[in-house]
Amino acid sequence: MVVLNKIYTRTGDKGTTALGNGDRVAKHDARVNAYGTSDELNAFVGVARLSAEGAMDDRLALIQNDLFDLGADLCRPDIASDAEAEYPPLRMVEAQVKRLEAEIDEMNSALSPLRSFVLPGGSALAAQLHVCRTVARRAERLATELSGHAEVNPVVITYLNRLSDWFFVASRVANNNGKDDVLWVPGANR
């Protein structure tokens, strides 16, 4: 259980922060960058939810919760020692990825195939979902960079990869099921 009764602790005043296992690292550590970017993504999802309704809002709420799970996973190194931990660390699981895939397939079934790349825009929600898509890609890049020198749950990377696809398809749904997509016209302004 999380209890936050004091918001500032002064423990980070010298540029370090605690990971989920208690280790202290620099606030610019690759692991902190990775889970910090997933937190940034979560904030952008919150902004997108201001324009979402119904099933789209419900799905975005699930994603926000998943992103907290993902941050908890990333902030806890030493996956190999999970079994010995006093409290089992929260890890992303394949079912979270499968849910995204099912939602992508369901949303995509109502869309016409694309004949050009889509420019971010159209409706306010679509534009916000494109911002989420690009931040998800950055979070994925940072997680894969971290995995090059530290242990990372592979489901984290798969989830972020699938999530950016989810945001792309959802942006098309938000654009009147793709009818209001703004398409790229190569070389249009030459």
From TrEMBL:
Q: Which reaction does it catalyse?
A: 2 cob(II)alamin + reduced [electron-transfer flavoprotein] + 2 ATP = 2 adenosylcob(III)alamin + 2 triphosphate + oxidized [electron-transfer flavoprotein] + 3 H(+); 2 cob(II)yrinate a,c diamide + reduced [electron-transfer flavoprotein] + 2 ATP = 2 adenosylcob(III)yrinate a,c-diamide + 2 triphosphate + oxidized [electron-transfer flavoprotein] + 3 H(+)
The Cobalamin adenosyltransferase-like domain, residue ranges: 7-174
Q: Which Pfam families match?
A: Cob_adeno_trans
Q: GO cellular component annotations, sorted alphabetically?
A: cytoplasm
Just give the chief location class.
Answer: cytoplasm
User: EC number(s) in its UniProt entry?
Assistant: 2.5.1.17
Compartment list: Cytoplasm
List the SUPFAM superfamilies: Cobalamin adenosyltransferase-like (SSF89028)
Q: Which GO terms describe its biological process?
A: cobalamin biosynthetic process
The molecular function terms of the Gene Ontology recorded here are: ATP binding; corrinoid adenosyltransferase activity
InterPro entries documented for this protein: CblAdoTrfase-like (IPR016030), CblAdoTrfase-like_sf (IPR036451), PduO-typ (IPR029499)
Membrane-crossing residue ranges in chain numbering: none
What are the UniProt keywords, alphabetically? Answer: ATP-binding, Cobalamin biosynthesis, Cytoplasm, Nucleotide-binding, Transferase
Q: In which pathway does it act?
A: Cofactor biosynthesis; adenosylcobalamin biosynthesis; adenosylcobalamin from cob(II)yrinate a,c-diamide: step 2/7
Q: Which Gene3D superfamilies does the record cross-reference, listed alphabetically?
A: Cobalamin adenosyltransferase-like (1.20.1200.10)
Domain of life where this protein originates: Bacteria
What family is this protein classified in? Belongs to the Cob(I)alamin adenosyltransferase family.
- What PANTHER family does the record point to? CORRINOID ADENOSYLTRANSFERASE (PTHR12213), CORRINOID ADENOSYLTRANSFERASE MMAB (PTHR12213:SF0)
Name it: Corrinoid adenosyltransferase
Q: Which organism is it from?
A: Cognatishimia maritima
